[in-house]
Amino acid sequence: MYAISQPDPVRLEIFKNLYQFIAEQMGIVLQNTATSVNIKERLDFSCAIFDSSGLLVANAPHIPVHLGSMSESVRSLINDKSDTIKPGNVYLSNNPYNGGTHLPDVTAITPVFLESGVNNPCPMPNAQCPMPIFFVASRGHQADIGGITPGSMPPHSTTIEEEGILFDNFLLVEEGNFRETAVREHLANHTYPARNPDQNLADFKAQIAANERGVQELRKMVLQYGLDTVQAYMKFVQANAEEAVRRAIAVLKDGSFIYKMDNGAQIQVKVTIHPENRSATIDFTGTYRQLNSNFNAPKAVTQAAVLYVFRTLVDDNIPLNAGCLNPLEIIIPVGCMLNPTYPAAVVAGNVETSQTIVDALYGALGVMAASQGTMNNFTFGNERYQYYETICGGSGAGINFDGTDAVHSHMTNSRLTDPEVLETRYPVLLESFSIRDDSGGKGEYSGGNGVVRRIRFLEPMTANILSGHRLVSPFGLNGGEAGKVGRNWIRRQNGSEESLDSSGTVEVNVGDVFVIETPGGGGFGHAEAQRR
């Protein structure tokens, strides 16, 4: 068989779309078979395929913070278990120090072998198994994975232990057999055990099914085109993405930015463009050291944010993959809040700090004002119910465009639960959900508006908010005004009001209303130059 040295342009386009299509098929299976509102309704999940070394090849357009970091999880599995990976095995991982984002995001990883496990390619106990030819993975946000508060998004955790159950390349399926007893024991054997293990297991099974669809589709592809061709075009698709990012880098200029957060922490980034080889160095030296709060972003999350930003600068329709990272040198000092060490708490680092990294990079590159810069993570629950949602806000304006009202921006790409589903599944009433007028920053191009969301409780619950930009405004650029800060507060049944900080936990009773006002995006360009 001769080696393919150059891609055929038509075939490159076909394979690029085929790889993405497989990831999309995995996502459809996951949505259809999951039971939790988080995955089935809010679509807080991601699916992707990887080459034999664990490098991202293609993904469905799911959650950017998942997709840019999953490769680290797959490579961790390869490094940790390469000698024991067998056909029919599926592994679970959510370790933030091994490619995970935060503990609720649990990744199921399935190796893809050329031969079916039914053919028993390892006949002898000590025989060397064939190596996987690909990997597929699905990451889903569990409604609860233990920890000190229902929903596993505690506002005030200080160690990873308080955030829930940690899976580190845990064997979920062993040669086709689902290890239910072992999983249940793992979910229960913890200081703060999982509150709804039945739901965890149901979603894990949905992820197994999604991965199996990916396995089947990749095998079909190999059958149709041959393994050499499929693997060659995986490399070509990655190389094509690399070239697209290099072209985007070629028109950028050096820049730096200092980004201050509500908690007083500071992210510092310097981008240096190297025109001679169309590459860039992204240096986070000067960023605050690891925090005692949970706003530390795992290294994989920081890399995912960088990958996302540079992918968005590319006009071509390319899949987000490992090739996008090749032109980038990313410097993240060990022990800083963007590369924390065990046992740092990270639950807000994934959802909040990831957003600030993106805005800091856009600020350094001068291409876009800050978006709302937060996911407005709202959880509530008790021993019976656990619910989590992220809430939209305003996106930032750019060089030639206005921001957008009421949109999930940047590192999140999930939905909000339909009111009918929310009110059917949980003892709450969605009192109102509306645009927050005049919350976007004015400018030649104006930032988008945030929203106001009011939820009335019909049972006593513990409610938690993890958010940002309640004190520091989302910045404008080039003379554009900043967006308005958000606000969290409660109207008690007796009519009294209580304001909450950016992060807070509160006991709510029947008739209490939790109100979340999300930030607007920053404006771009001087307001006096506003278009007529």
Structure summarized in a few sentences:
With 532 residues, this protein is α+β, with helices and mostly antiparallel strands.
Give an overview of the whole structure.
The chain is of the alpha+beta class and 532 residues long. It contains 10 helices and 20 strands. A hairpin with a 5-residue loop joins strand 17 and strand 18. The relative contact order is 0.12.
Summary tags:
532 residues, seven-stranded antiparallel β-sheet, five-stranded antiparallel β-sheet, 21% strand
Runs with pLDDT <50, length 5+?
117-127
Largest sheet: 7 strands, antiparallel
CA(first)-CA(last) distance: 64 Å
Q: Taking strands numbered 1, 2, ... along the chain, how are they ordered across the largest sheet?
A: 2-1-5-4-3-6-7
Give the C-alpha Rg.
Answer: 23 Å
Structural class: alpha+beta
Map the helices and strands.
Layout: H1 9-33, H2 37-40, E1 45-50, E2 56-59, H3 64-67, H4 70-81, E3 90-93, E4 105-112, E5 134-141, E6 170-174, E7 177-178, H5 180-188, H6 197-225, H7 227-249, E8 255-260, E9 266-274, E10 279-283, H8 299-312, E11 328-331, H9 347-365, E12 377-381, E13 386-389, H10 419-425, E14 428-436, E15 450-457, E16 461-466, E17 487-491, E18 497-500, E19 503-508, E20 513-517
Parallel strand pairs: 10-11
Antiparallel strand pairs: 1-2, 1-5, 3-4, 3-6, 4-5, 6-7, 8-9, 9-10, 12-13, 12-16, 14-15, 15-20, 16-19, 17-18, 17-20
Helix pairs in contact: 1-6, 1-7, 6-7, 8-9
